[in-house]
């Protein structure tokens, strides 16, 4: 690990003016620093900021501080009762020790687990822009089949963010000039395109302070995660689903996916394929067709396309009983 300056921020304003890399739990960043994948010159410790509460909002939703540990969020009675898909996603996300340290804001910003991103001897446009991508044509079993580009096929690893996208979360931030932003999670992440190193719309020094959830959705909630082993493994395919069935037809649907793209993936065409229709194999196949219309495998990860189809259909069967 290379040398770096360390500064502890006592206020949000001090943190945003510190001109450094924010660190809270450090469950991702410290690993990257040990491998010299990331070499920040200054770490700004935000772990003591007053951002670790969960409060009810006037609209019936929740405001979640950016420093709330994943364990606390997963176990909060309001989350367990009203946002089951989020609680389940968090519990599926990592070991208990990691959940105790990992923060809500840090979870949203964790970086890809692509093997070539972690290997500094390999070419990686996300780590070293313009160097190339050894994952394309390499061993890419865990990597993306949706939203990729010729520059990058990395996946976003978060389980929590997939559930947050299905729940239409809003990310609240503050900049150094005091300006606050409310960013829909649908607009928060960026596709790789020609600049895979730019992963979100955050500006330099902009700090996530809260995540807001709208009022609890109607219907049944499910989080299904397919992975290589039952514990402490990233998703090959995951689905966060919320569906309400009324009078024998799907009245509303929210479906987000992990393990398939460079961001928590959601395509309105998937939901449109089943809303207003009676639950059936035909309707579920149409939703899978919409999801995978632009899917592209790169060799080792070709299996993800049929796996995603089967996982989505199984999840829709659960959600619609």
Automatic annotation (TrEMBL):
Under SUPFAM superfamilies, the record lists: CO dehydrogenase flavoprotein C-terminal domain-like, FAD-binding/transporter-associated domain-like
Q: Which residues form the FAD-binding PCMH-type domain?
A: 1-218
Query: Which UniProt keywords are listed?
Result: FAD, Flavoprotein
**Protein's recorded name:** Xanthine dehydrogenase YagS FAD-binding subunit
Source species, domain of life:
Bacteria
Q: List the InterPro entries.
A: CO_DH_flav_C, CO_DH_flav_C_dom_sf, Diverse_Substr_Oxidored, FAD-bd_PCMH, FAD-bd_PCMH-like_sf, FAD-bd_PCMH_sub1, FAD-bd_PCMH_sub2, Mopterin_DH_FAD-bd
Task: Fetch the Gene3D superfamilies from UniProt.
Answer: 3.30.465.10, CO dehydrogenase flavoprotein, C-terminal domain, Uridine Diphospho-n-acetylenolpyruvylglucosamine Reductase, domain 2
State the Gene Ontology terms under molecular function: FAD binding; oxidoreductase activity
What the entry lists under PROSITE patterns is as follows:
FAD_PCMH
Q: Name one Pfam family in it.
A: FAD_binding_5
